[in-house]
Amino acid sequence: MIERWLPPQASAHAGEIDLVLTLVHWLMLVLFVGWGVYFVWMLVRFREGRQPAPLAEGPPRRPAQWTEIGVVMAEGVLLVVIALPVWYRQTTAPATADPSAVAVRVVAEQFAWNIHYPGADGRFGETRLSLVSPTNPVGLDRSSAHGADDLLTLDDLHLPINQPVVIQLSSKDMIHSFGIPAMRIKQDATPGLLSPVWFTPTMAGQFDIACSQLCGLGHYRMRAVITVESEAEYQAFLKAEAELQVGR
Asked: Do residues 134 and 82 both lie within one domain?
C-alpha cells in the first residue's frame, strides 16, 4: 500500500522494507485514532457539569494500563518478528552467501562517495592511511598483493542486475549514511568500522545515492549515482575503467 508513494522497488528485499513501513504506519494510525477518541471521551466524561468534584485518584487506570500493554506487545512483535530479521539479513553475510557475489567498498568523506572495486582478481588490495591523497582518496597501495588491478571511481557506482551485492561501507572523517531510496538501503558509514550491506538489484537504470546523515555545510551535495545494468554492460564498464586506470 505505502509503495505507491515511494520510489519503485529496485531490489529483492524492497517489498519486505515496504511491509515494515506499512505496518508501522497502520500502528501509528490506530494509536492516533485510539488516543484521540480516548481524549475526547475524557473531556466529555469528566466535564465540570458531570464531575463537579475532582477525583484525587484520577480516571480509571485499568483500561489505560491494558491499552499500554497491548501497544508494547504490538511494537515488540513488529520489531522482533518482522523488522529485526529484515535488518539482520541485509547487514550480515547469509549462511549460504553466493561466493560470486559482487563486492564493492564505498568510502565516505565530506562530501563525496569513493567507490573501490577489487579488479579482475576479485580481491581488494591493501589500503594505507599514509597513502591517502587527492588522487588516491582511499589510500590504495597498488604495490600490495592484490592492489595493482583495483579500480577507483568517484560518485559513480555500477552494479550488475539480479546478482547478489555486498557493499562494504566505511568513512574517512565522520559518520555518514549511505542511502539508496529505490533499493530501500540506508546504512551508516562509520570511521574505523567496515559495515556490510547485502542486497540484490532487480531493476536496470540509474538511481540516486544520498547521504542521510547531516555531515556539514556541504551535506546537500553529497550525492552519487548507482547504475544497474546487464552483466555484459557491467563487465564492459570494468574493462574500460581498467584500461584508463591500470593500462589493461
From this structure: no
For 168, the domain range is 102-245
**Residues 62-111: pLDDT tens digits?**
777 777 888 888 888 888 888 888 888 777 765 456 677 899 999 999 99
Angle subtended at Cα 129 by Cα 123 and Cα 131, rounded to the nearest 5 degrees: 80
Q: Which of 91, 120, 147 is the last residue of a domain?
A: 91
Give me the long-range contacts of 221-226 (CB less than 8 A, separation at least 24): 221/111, 222/108, 222/110, 222/111, 222/112, 222/113, 222/176, 223/155, 224/112, 224/113, 224/115, 224/155, 224/156, 224/157, 225/155, 225/156, 225/157, 226/157, 226/158, 226/159, 226/180, 226/183
CA 189/CA 10 separation, integer angstroms:
22
Instruction: Indicate the DSSP class of residue 200.
Output: -
| pLDDT of 233 above 80 | yes
Looking at 55, 72, 91, which one is the last position of a domain?
A: 91
Classify residue 96: in a domain, yes or no. no
